[in-house]
Amino acid sequence: MIRAVKGTRDILPPATDLWNRVEQQARAVFHSYNYHEIRTPIFEETLLFTRGVGEDTDIVTKEMYTFTDRDGSSLTLRPECTASVMRAVVEHRLDQQAGQLKLYYMGPMFRRERPQKGRFRQFYQIGAEAIGSEAPAVDAEMVEVAAEVLRSAGLSDFQLLINSVGCPECRPKFVSGLQARLRAVAASLCSDCRRRVETNPLRVLDCKVPGDQPVIDRLPSILDCLCAACRDHFDAVLALITDRGIAFELRPRLVRGLDYYMRTTFEITHGALGAQNSVLGGGRYDGLAQALGSKVRLPGIGFSIGEDRLLMTLQEQAGSAAQEGPDLFIAPLGEEAFRAAARLALGLRRAGVSVEMALDARLKRSLEVANKLRARYALILGADEMAAGNYQLKDLITGDQQTVSRDELFERLRARHAG
RNA sequence: GUGGGUGUAGCUCAGCCGGUAGAGCGCUGGAUUGUGGUUCCAGUGGUCGAGGGUUCGAAUCCCUCCACCCACCCCA
Questions:
Q1: ipTM of the assembly?
Q2: Interval A254-269 mean pLDDT
Q3: On chain B, which bases lie within 7 A of the protein's CB atoms?
């Protein structure tokens, strides 16, 4: 038997309704902030990601789906979308347009990791990018949009974590200073952290091993080492977020794994997720455009929602929903009635009503199916109704049944649809 | 890449000490004529993840492999 490949999965009907709802609501929120959708290719030149995401990141060193095209060029399935968006912006000079450049996207990303709860090799992200300004107001709005998208999806009880990781001026100084301190105390750290001291010193700050906490607590915080410009920027961002009434938690140890992040970084977590508890991650990337070869400086900030994880928590919050049934199930009795029913169904469908038709001529069976499909109403059309020019409309919840004319039928179902 | 757990019907699972498979749900049909949901009756359904070994006999014991899940790592 052929199965979906490891780390990929089918998203099936009852769930797809929820996915679509979440995506529609996200679009509505984005539009309310004047964001517009961008769709970039699912694969790009490998160089885009090695330069954009960073040569030494986990994503680039071990997680990319890279293949050689027939002409010998190296292509990669996108592991994230920010680099692609920036590439498109630079390529099409979208930054030349009036006003802020505000874009959103949604779609699948690919990373070859070992799957586990909340982690897939093909996963879906909903993200936004605001490009062209480094004003703290943009950061604040971005954080607000992120929270609003989650809220509109119905997510509650999430936590916003925020930090500043500095800039190319102050971060390297902090990292090398931190590394020096860590090397001195490496012996008292866990084995993972001893390795991190060399590979990813910032990550040590986020270690959860209890024995390491006393050491970690005495390490310097990046927030105490920001340069004046970064400090001012971050203070302004925090002030604006506070002013907007957004609850957040300052997390000086919050680390982002992608090289392009600088200054503001943030993350939203939810308790119902398991080890991979982050539903959203984001941050500022003022150096990305130039890393990709842009001659002009294009500061930007964005975030990305892990849609799979968002849906996972929503489903845990609400339980599994039953599939939504059609508005109307038509049960015609006999050949002639069937043809008349098909014509009626077309009219109703054009009016926006969801209609299903019976394939079985037995009324008992038809109503049984109507009930199983969770149809709201059943319409009976037999010889009697054909002769009289009307229909029997049965309410499948109350069991009430009444004779209705064509106009009354449309009236009833339109009302149902509007409500 | 490294650990740990689990693999029996479409789904959720029982089957502990070896004697060639069960339940609930689902699905199909029926309880007469053009009326669903509840109920009752019947039926459908599984090379017990795969291969090998021990044994008169293996879903059950042993080995190997595979798949999925969870965790590490890292991230969305």
A1: 0.88
A2: 88
A3: 1-3, 27, 29-30, 33-37, 67-76
